[in-house]
Specification:
mainly alpha; about 0% strand; 4 helices
Amino acid sequence: LARRESLTVRQLIGRLGGGRGHLTFTGTPEQVADEIETWFTRGAADGFNIMPPVLPSGLEAFVDHVVPILRERGLLRTAYGPRQTLRERYGLRRPRNQYVSDAVDVPGPATAGAPAALTRI
């Protein structure tokens, strides 16, 4: 395809890459980190969805080569706080589970003489 249509590497990636229809960054790890930094510092983005064209090698290359640069520039966290869930991070209470009802006493012969712990559902 590349030879037949005289495509550059960038054009070929644009045609075959997993990010079709989305903005794609292609270049050296430093160039990709520069693009991400530009979008972040100008307030155009506060996060990115990474969609490498080939898995797992494309993701591994991003993690091995771009992530360290972003961390060095202070654009990517090296650790997270003690809260583990998104709900906990935003201080949201756990919603009531609609499938769990409050315990109720069950009267009747089926529970007559049963220990109290077994008469509560």
